[in-house]
Design a protein that fits this description.
264 residues, 5 strands, 7 helices, alpha+beta, 67% helix, elongated
């Protein structure tokens, strides 16, 4: 029993020592990566937005043309994230894409050539700190995993210690996979730009469009007007009844007051 407790204590000391050493060396290794390979580079994520105004008949063709251009641009890795087209009373479309900067420039040029640009903007987010922190965590997890694997081999004769180390290894493996996925997502945001395109026909609709909309809304507006009139009558009717009942009494009282003889 005493021998088993001694082995478990030794295993705990090895694990704690591994945690301390990984914190120091991991920070230096990840910092060296950033200061070396990526020194002087800006870890920025760009998000562009473009709004264009086109004729109603051009909204759908432009929408489909942008989708086709993104799908065909495999060189810049264009990825369609979201798209919607509303062909109802107000024709408009929205497209969200991610691609390399060269591909984003092509798409912006395509949209600008087919319609009138009404607004354009760019938002930048600095991801330097998130990337640095996540890579420090990755380096620490990798070193911790290596130390646990070494400890696992040393604890082969101790079943209890081996079970504990195996559980810790499984936990570290899950955290390592999550950190790796987070790093890949951050680098994707840095290597590629996000583009949001909005296409509308508000400023270039035809002469008959407002008339068609008014005719289309006629029955709805008529029912709304009748409903408002009924509601107004519901508010006015009690006051009207009160006026009809009280006005004769008030008028009679006023006449009596005026006709009363004055006392000297």
């Amino acid at each position: 029993m005493n021998k088993r407790m001694t082995l478990l204590a030794l295993a705990g000391l090895i694990i704690l020592a591994g945690c301390g050493s990984k914190g120091e060396s991991g920070g230096q290794s990840s910092a060296a990566r950033l200061d070396g390979k990526e020194k002087g580079s800006q870890l920025l994520a760009y998000e562009h937005s473009v709004s264009v105004d086109a004729h109603e008949a051009q909204v759908r063709p432009l929408y489909e043309k942008v989708l086709a251009a993104c799908k065909a641009d495999t060189e810049n890795g264009c990825l369609l994230l979201d798209s919607s087209l509303d062909s109802g009373r107000y024709v408009h479309a929205r497209i969200s894409m991610r691609a390399k900067p060269a591909g984003i420039k092509k798409l912006v040029a395509l949209v600008s050539a087919e319609g009138e640009v009404t607004s354009e903007g760019t938002k930048v987010e600095d991801l330097g700190r998130p990337v640095l922190d996540n890579r420090k965590r990755l380096e620490m997890l990798k070193q911790y995993q290596a130390q646990l694997q070494d400890l696992e081999q040393r604890s082969a004769v101790n079943v209890d210690a081996l079970i504990k180390v195996s559980k810790e290894l499984a936990t570290v493996q899950v955290e390592l996979e999550q950190a790796t996925a987070a790093d890949a997502l951050l680098m994707q945001r840095i290597d590629t730009d996000l583009l949001n395109v909005a296409i509308s026909a508000e400023g270039k609709h035809s002469f008959w469009t407002p008339i068609k909309r008014a005719l289309g809304n006629f029955t709805e507006n008529l029912s709304a007007g009748v409903a408002n009139a009924i509601t107004a009558m519901a508010y006015i009717l009690p006051w009207l009844l009160a006026f009809v009942l009280l006005f004769p009494l008030g008028r009679k009282g006023w006449r009596r007051l005026r006709g009363a003889p004055r006392k000297d």
